[in-house]
Design brief:
The protein has 284 residues and is an alpha/beta fold. It has one domain (12-283). It has nine helices and six strands, in the order βααβββββααααααα. It has helices spanning 29-36, 67-93, 137-145, 151-169, 172-181, 185-214, 221-231, 234-242, 255-268; strands spanning 12-14, 102-106, 109-112, 115-118, 124-126, 131-135. The strands form two sheets. It has a four-stranded mixed β-sheet with strand order 1-2-6-5. A hairpin with a 4-residue loop joins strand 5 (124-126) and strand 6. Helix 4 crosses helix 6 (185-214). The protein is globular, with a radius of gyration of 18 Å. The two termini are 29 Å apart.
Length: 284
């Protein structure tokens, strides 16, 4: 990606020097976190198993970020700024005001409005405090473990989580939560798939406009993003972890679905084309 000379967002809380314990989850947290864990193909509530831990606070451990991590932090701040610019413009064009999310950078573990979080959680959005949480080591995991490296692949991760914030501002998250409370497990998973695919679409919409405004995409960038979307499909992750798939347990979408909706956003840049809730489930 071409990012030279781009501004960096200052709407960032860098907690990497605070390697504290984890805090307990609030009583309503399980419902919220079911919507925000974007990577794992299994139970999105697994990271909530540790409760009644020490709150996030000071630790005697010293922490010095590596040069690679500092580069990743600078990159994340520029991408966040790009999402702020794009979504501010899109909301304004639609007669609304965009209130950007805060980005929380952490290392190891931290607390959020949705409960405790660790590096194993993966990046997520917490609507309770309207923040995107990222342990920057996840980018290295994408490259080394998922075969999904590349700067646009990492930007897609951030833009996807910001997409959930867009859903929060538009009331989509609340509506889905209410629908899930009345649904069985199979239907709840399907609603979550629709939510995640829409966030993929919004990530594509961001990239379309960011490239239009800044010529940010280089040769191979789009392929990196589509590859990342493919690598984190529920079907691929389930096959790798257990050797077979359970479609009724999908909660983020298949590789083909995730790639298709990201690509649609990239090609059109039109937020109105991302209604994943009106499409027949079999046609997503």
């Amino acid at each position: 990606m071409r990012l030279d000379g781009r501004r960096a967002s200052d709407n960032v809380d860098d907690r990497r020097a605070r390697r504290g314990g984890k805090a307990s989850l609030g009583i309503g947290g399980t419902v919220i976190v079911a919507l925000i864990i974007w990577l794992t193909g299994g139970n999105p509530l697994s990271f909530l198993s540790q409760q009644a831990m020490d709150g996030m606070g000071s630790s005697s451990q010293s922490y010095t970020p590596t040069a690679e991590e500092e580069e990743a932090a600078a990159f994340a701040k520029i991408i966040l700024a790009g999402t702020e610019d794009v979504w501010t413009k899109i909301f304004k064009e639609n007669g609304a005001t965009y209130a950007p999310p805060k980005m929380i950078l952490f290392s190891g573990s931290t607390t959020s409005g949705c409960g405790s979080a660790s590096a194993s959680t993966g990046p997520f959005y917490c609507p309770a405090d309207q923040s995107v949480y990222i342990d920057l080591s996840f980018f290295k995991q994408m490259k080394d473990q998922l075969g999904a490296g590349g700067d646009f692949a990492y930007a897609y991760v951030i833009a996807h989580e910001v997409g959930h914030h867009v859903q929060y501002l538009m009331g989509t998250l609340d509506k889905v939560t209410q629908m899930q409370q009345k649904a069985d497990k199979r239907e709840s998973n399907r609603l979550n798939v629709r939510l995640e695919l829409q966030a993929d679409f919004y990530a594509g919409v961001w990239a379309y406009h960011d490239n239009k405004d800044f010529s940010s995409l280089e040769d191979g960038d789009i392929e990196e993003g589509l590859n990342a979307a493919s690598q984190i499909g529920d079907d691929r992750l389930q096959m790798e972890s257990q050797g077979y798939t359970v479609p009724d347990a999908f909660n983020h979408g298949t590789s083909a679905q995730r790639t298709r909706w990201l690509k649609k956003g990239l090609q059109t840049g039109n937020i109105k084309g991302g209604d994943t809730f009106s499409v027949s489930y079999d046609e997503l």
